[in-house]
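Please predict the structure of the following assembly.
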Amino acid sequence: MTTRKDFGQHYLVDFLRCDPETLRSVGPTRNIFLRAAREAKATVVAEDFYQFEPEGVSGVLLIAESHLSVHTWPEDGFAAVDIFTCGEEMDAEVAIAVLTAAFRAEETVVSVHTRGQLGERESEEPDVG
Amino acid sequence: MTTRKDFGQHYLVDFLRCDPETLRSVGPTRNIFLRAAREAKATVVAEDFYQFEPEGVSGVLLIAESHLSVHTWPEDGFAAVDIFTCGEEMDAEVAIAVLTAAFRAEETVVSVHTRGQLGERESEEPDVG
C-alpha cells in the first residue's frame, strides 16, 4: 500500500431543527455564511446565492482553500452544508460553530472525509467480519 | 427511532491519475463540467469558475437540484468533485461517468452520503464491538 498526499478535508454538516427565519431567504443566510467563512479565516474568491420560491436558499462560496456550500429547507428547519478545505490556515470547526449558533440548530451532525486517499475507500457500512 | 424524509444524496468523487491537460485551466474543465451536468439532467442556475496560478481550477455549478463542485490538482492528476442532488430527475451516476471519461481518470472512487437523516450518523471508523 502506497501512502500519498491528501488533498484536504471535506466536512458534510447537517443542521437540524434550526430557526426557519434564518433559512428562508438569501439575505440572512448569506450574511451568516460570509461571517462563518470570515471567522474560519477562509479567503472568498467568488460567491453565488440563489433564492427558491416561496422560500429556501442555495449558496456557495468559492474560497482559496476550496469551497463552502449551503442548501436550506426552512419548512423542515434543515440546512445542509459542506465545507471542503485544503491547507492549514482555515479552521472549518470555527465555521461549523458559527453556523450552529446563527442557525440556532438544536443538533449538528458532522462527518469528515479525507479526499484523494488512494486505497482508503470510505465505507458507508461498518465492515464487521 | 423516528424516520424522516431525506434531503438528497451527496456524492464525493475522487478522480485519480487523470490527464493533467483537462485539469489545468478553466476552459476545458468548465466545458467538461457543464457537459456532465447537462447529460445528468441537472438544471444549472448559477456558475463560478476560478483559475489558480500557475494552474488548477475551482468551480461550482449551483443547480436546481443542489450543486456540483470541482477542484483540480493537475500536477497530481487529481480532481475532487462533489455532487449534491435532491429529487428524482437528475442522475449523478451519469455525471460521474462523463467526468471519468473526459478527465481520462484511471480510477474513480465514489462515496455516497444521505443527508439529513437524524440518528443515522455516518461513521468514519468501522464500529466493531
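Chain B has a mean pLDDT of 89. Chain B is about 20% helix and 35% strand.
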